């Protein structure tokens, strides 16, 4: 006898599982705890099978019968509906690629264009702040509010700049997913303005000539290792990034040409960079060479010559010399040089090129590592001479570039 809606609704559980038969293999299974499941019993290839068609009341009697009829059509054609369902689920799983999978694929393709430190920071942000929350989610199913909740966890701990960088990275992953066919759109675009702007940070630096003179004289009083002392003395002359300085290798130094060529792999923008060496820098390096020249790095770690000195070494030395972190940093030597060289009237483009700042024109950037090199050589020597006079206590009136050309 066929079931009715009233009979299904009023069916009560018993001490054991109850099965109420409908028609053509369909029955309602009621567990002792009250759960109700629609089941279809059928035979295919001489074997009995059982398949679930949904739960009541989410699946009504009418819906269950429609699903039964669809399954029986497959059976009539020799197709097992249970196997078909497994294949469909497998197909969905294959299509529903997770955020973490796409993010790691994006990272593996683009990390070759970054410095090692930038790559490490990027993947660490994902692993610490993103993957635990949405890493296992199918990327096409993630909605903007869900991503915002993830980013706001970073914001809540006061790391506003990290929150913005993480949002930017997530946007890159979503755009890569769109290009790869794993997502329909970049949902991060809907969150512009959702995170408060980060306060612009400037690396602490001294730029007044009197303060620069005092700093240079204080550096000469440093009582730590000779290696660190040499790095401190070179930092204001060469004004490269702290990471570039500490990773300097002897094989990159050409004393005959008076230049240091930093390979593209070490540079932030992955472009080879030439640092003209003034006579003062060459003298410092020649004095250092007997101590570390047999090894790879100019400034090796105190623990092993196989690694460069710690990224905190120069800053720690400045602290020992009495400079607080809001007064001077290793990166601040770049701000010092940029400010004063611009005030002296040197070509702004030459200064920017020597600072190895990003070139917006990618085609031009591929060929400009030696751009303005003759002028940069003159500028670097004039800068070192200026610092030398400041350190000596002379009253220095900077000679503008135009007057010296």
Automatic annotation (TrEMBL):
Keyword annotations of the record: DNA integration, DNA recombination, DNA-binding
GO molecular function: DNA binding
Gene3D superfamilies: 1.10.150.130, Integrase, DNA-binding domain, Intergrase catalytic core
All residue ranges annotated as the Tyr recombinase domain in the record: 202-380
Organism: Solidesulfovibrio carbinoliphilus subsp. oakridgensis
SUPFAM superfamilies: DNA breaking-rejoining enzymes (SSF56349)
Family: Belongs to the 'phage' integrase family.
A GO biological-process term: DNA integration
The protein's name: Integrase family protein
InterPro entries: DNA_brk_join_enz, Integrase-like_cat_sf, Integrase_catalytic, Integrase_DNA-bd_sf, Integrase_DNA_bind_dom, Integrase_recombinase_N, Phage_int_M, Phage_Integrase
Alphabetized Pfam families for the sequence: Arm-DNA-bind_3, Phage_int_M, Phage_integrase
């Amino acid at each position: 006898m066929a079931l009715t809606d009233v009979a299904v609704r009023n069916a009560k559980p018993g001490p054991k599982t109850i099965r109420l038969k409908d028609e053509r293999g369909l029955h309602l299974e009621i567990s002792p705890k009250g759960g109700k499941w629609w089941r279809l019993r059928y035979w295919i290839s001489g074997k009995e099978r059982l398949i679930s068609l949904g739960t009541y009341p989410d699946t009504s009697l009418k819906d269950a019968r429609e699903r039964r009829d669809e399954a029986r059509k497959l059976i009539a054609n020799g197709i097992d509906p249970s196997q078909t369902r497994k294949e469909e689920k497998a197909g969905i799983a294959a299509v529903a690629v997770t955020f973490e999978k796409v993010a790691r694929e994006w990272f593996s393709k683009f990390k070759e264009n970054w410095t090692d430190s930038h790559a490490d920071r990027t993947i660490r942000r994902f692993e610490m702040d993103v993957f635990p929350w949405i890493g296992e989610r199918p990327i096409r199913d993630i909605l903007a509010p869900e991503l915002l909740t993830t980013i706001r966890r970073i914001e809540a701990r006061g790391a506003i700049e990290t929150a913005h960088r993480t949002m930017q990275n997530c946007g890159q992953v979503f755009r890569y997913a769109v290009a790869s066919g794993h997502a329909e759109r970049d949902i991060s675009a809907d969150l512009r303005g959702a995170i408060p702007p980060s306060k612009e940070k400037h690396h602490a630096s001294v730029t007044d000539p009197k303060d620069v003179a005092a700093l240079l004289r204080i550096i000469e009083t440093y009582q730590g290792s000779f290696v660190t002392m040499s790095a401190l003395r070179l930092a204001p002359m060469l004004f490269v990034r702290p990471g570039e300085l500490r990773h300097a290798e002897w094989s990159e130094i050409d004393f005959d040409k008076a230049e240091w060529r930093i390979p593209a792999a070490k540079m932030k923008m992955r472009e080879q960079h030439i640092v003209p060496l003034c006579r003062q820098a060459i003298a410092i390096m020649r004095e250092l060479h007997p101590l570390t020249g047999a090894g790879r790095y100019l400034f090796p770690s105190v623990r092993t010559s196989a690694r460069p000195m710690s990224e905190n070494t120069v800053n720690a030395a400045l602290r020992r010399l009495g400079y607080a972190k809001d007064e001077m940093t290793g990166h601040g030597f770049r701000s010092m040089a940029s400010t004063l060289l611009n005030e002296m009237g040197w070509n702004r483009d030459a200064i920017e090129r020597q600072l190895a700042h990003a070139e917006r024109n990618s085609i031009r950037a591929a060929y400009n590592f030696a751009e303005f090199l003759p002028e940069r050589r003159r500028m670097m020597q004039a800068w070192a001479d200026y610092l030398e006079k400041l350190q000596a206590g002379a009253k220095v009136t900077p000679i503008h570039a135009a007057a010296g050309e």
